[in-house]
Amino acid sequence: MANSLIFLFCFFTLVVLGSCGPLSDQEKDKIFKLPGQPPFDFNQYSGYVIVNQESGRALFYWLTESPASRNPESRPLLLWLNGGPGCSSVAYGAAEEIGPLHINSDGKTLFTNPYSWTKLANLLFLELPAGVGYSYTNATSDLYTFGDARTAEDSYAFLVNWFERFPQYKYRDFYIAGESYAGHYVPQLSQLIYERNKGVKNPVINFKGFMVGNAVTDDYNDYVGTFEYWWTHGLISDSTYKSLQKACEGSSSEHPPVECVSALSIAEIEQGRIDPYSIYTKPCGITSSFKRRGHYPWMRGAYDPCTENYANQYFNLPEVQEAFHANITKLSYPWKTCSDIVGGYWTDSPLSMLPIYKELIDAGLRIWVFSGDTDSVVPLTATRYSIDALNLTTIANWYPWYDNGKVAGWSQIYNGLTFVTVTGAGHEVPLHRPRQAFILFRSFLENKAMERSSI
Are strands 206-215 and 110-112 parallel, antiparallel or unpaired? Predict the structure, then answer.
């Protein structure tokens, strides 16, 4: 199939351009059509970019450009990252949140997302680190030694090489967004880009700012705010609340002490069969959310509705992998939404991203933070405590923002940072509130405050 498509492409260029030389890496990455895809009017590309020659680490990407009717050549580029650590941005960000194509319940066909962010920007989804999704490494030991620092370096190497493959995006306005443990990935990559752009008059990576949602930010404040959310929402007992405060606060969320793990296990039992990523919606199956997280719920994986099951079906289809130019090394394991090995053996994880926030705020970059208010994994209260620890000056105090005359959330504008909440949204805001998430992203790009008027 792939060879026949290349032949057709070559024939087309021969007719139109009068020649058919060797295909560029960009042309090789072009997706002509995905299995089960409805009619579409946008270009999309996917493939691998090598980020480390010695270990043979290669990261898989999926670029979905703005529709032709929306002038993609004039739109900015947004890199979207999911967290985990160890979860796929293709599975979550692209296939069930902000991408133009989502997966039907048959696990074989796709449908168009009416609130895709491609209407506003060209979207680049990246599976990271190697070992997540289709991304791979030739050094098996890598899978057991990934952490924040190497992930940031590999992400930066990916961007440098990717812009060489797609030179039309050089100097284009560039933003980064993500959620959950990408609350580490996004600021750290942003810092690398900012620092390596210093002294460069016209940087290739024209970085303008970042946005994160329900983001892991500062372990101390995240713990305080999370336990408070559980207690005030009636999810845990008074005694467990006190045990969590004593055993966990001040420790690492990725490597908690034994006493903290024990207290978290008790809290999970008390919470019962709810979906912690969206506490007021019914889980997809009784045990689907709990099997992956093991004995403690703290920041493992991502929101687990049935859409995750559809992704596992679709991205394992051989014809899908061929269309994506994926799994070229014939991995010894199936594609999964989240890698248990990568997430379970995570190494370095700084306790706080707040120093990076301070540096990038001082640099004048655009920074927005948003939070769905029904998520109990990285809840609204955790984010508010973390932002408060920055001691920023308030420009516009807490106010409701509206969509079609109804309160859609609240916002507060600080000197250097804008915070927005989305009512009724869980851990994956664009999944639960796609229209409101679209409005939020549009406001971010335009750098305009959320709408105050109810009219």
Answer: unpaired
Q: Which fold has domain 28-218+309-340?
A: Rossmann fold (3.40.50)
Q: Read off the pLDDT of residues 164-213 as tens digits, 9 standing for 90 and up.
A: 999 999 999 999 999 999 999 999 999 999 999 998 999 999 999 999 99
Q: Which residues are catalytic?
A: 180, 375, 427
**Are the C-beta atoms of 223 and 249 separated by less than 8 Å?**
yes
pLDDT tens digits for range 297-309: 333 344 446 888 9
* Residues 372, 428: Cα–Cα separation, whole Å: 7
How close are the terminal C-alpha atoms of the chain, in Å? 53
- 2.40.30.20, 1.10.10.10, 3.40.50.300, 3.40.50.11320: CATH of 367-446: 3.40.50.11320
* Beta strands 366-372; 173-180: pairing state: unpaired
